[in-house]
């Protein structure tokens, strides 16, 4: 506010600016200002005349600062490949293998139920045991081979397809299989 007041006072006090008597007033209540043309106004350059050049002082570059070496990321900790560590209760294999089997089992059970109309218990009793055992052996071996080679599941986990997502999907599939079998048992017929 003070700056605008100062600017307005300097405009009104300037002798080169005059307010005409019949001028109109703008929206702020300030009369329109007209500037007088001063024909005798000259502009002079304030630049210095060329002087003899002085010897240049050599400029030494600043001492070079060597970049600090970036620390090399520590290698990921080595995963134990001992049989007892891989298949321990809190090891990487048991829940993952059970979850993978449950995911395949749930999808297969629902597909057979929709296609043929057999419930989970009927599928197992009508020749489903060899299929279950064969699938279990193949998936268990496929899951254990990388773990025995020292590859962790977290190292292959990126973005949307993370190792945690696989664990949660496996847990939901296990619950789904139990719920499907229990519902069919209580109901006495297939779910679909």
Automatic annotation (TrEMBL):
Q: Where in the cell is it found?
A: Membrane
Membrane-protein topology: Multi-pass membrane protein
Q: Which UniProt keywords are given for this protein, alphabetically ordered?
A: Membrane, Transmembrane, Transmembrane helix
Q: Where is the composition biased (Pro residues)?
A: 58-74
- Ranges annotated as spanning the membrane: 101-121, 127-148
> Region labeled Disordered — which residues?
45-78
Task: Look up keyword Transmembrane helix and say if it applies.
Answer: yes
Q: What is this protein called?
A: Early light-induced protein
Q: Which species does the entry assign this protein to?
A: Glycine max (Soybean)
Instruction: Show the taxonomic lineage.
Output: Eukaryota, Viridiplantae, Streptophyta, Embryophyta, Tracheophyta
| The gene coding this protein | ELIP
């Amino acid at each position: 506010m003070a700056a605008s007041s100062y600017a307005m006072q300097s405009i009104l006090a300037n002798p080169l600016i005059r307010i005409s008597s019949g001028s109109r007033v703008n929206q702020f209540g300030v009369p329109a200002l007209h500037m007088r043309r001063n024909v005798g106004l000259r502009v002079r350059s304030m630049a210095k005349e060329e002087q003899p050049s002085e010897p240049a002082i050599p400029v030494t570059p600043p001492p070079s600062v060597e970049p600090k070496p970036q620390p090399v990321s520590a290698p990921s900790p080595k995963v134990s490949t001992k049989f007892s560590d891989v298949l321990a209760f809190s090891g990487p294999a048991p829940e993952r293998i059970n979850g993978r089997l449950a995911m395949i089992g749930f999808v297969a059970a629902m597909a057979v139920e929709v296609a043929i109309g057999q419930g989970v218990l009927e599928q197992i009793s009508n020749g489903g045991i060899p299929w279950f055992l064969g699938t279990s052996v193949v998936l268990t071996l496929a899951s254990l081979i990388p773990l025995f080679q020292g590859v962790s599941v977290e190292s292959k986990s990126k973005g949307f397809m993370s190792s945690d997502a696989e664990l949660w999907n496996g847990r939901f599939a296990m619950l789904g299989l139990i719920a499907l079998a229990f519902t069919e048992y209580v109901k006495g017929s297939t779910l679909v």
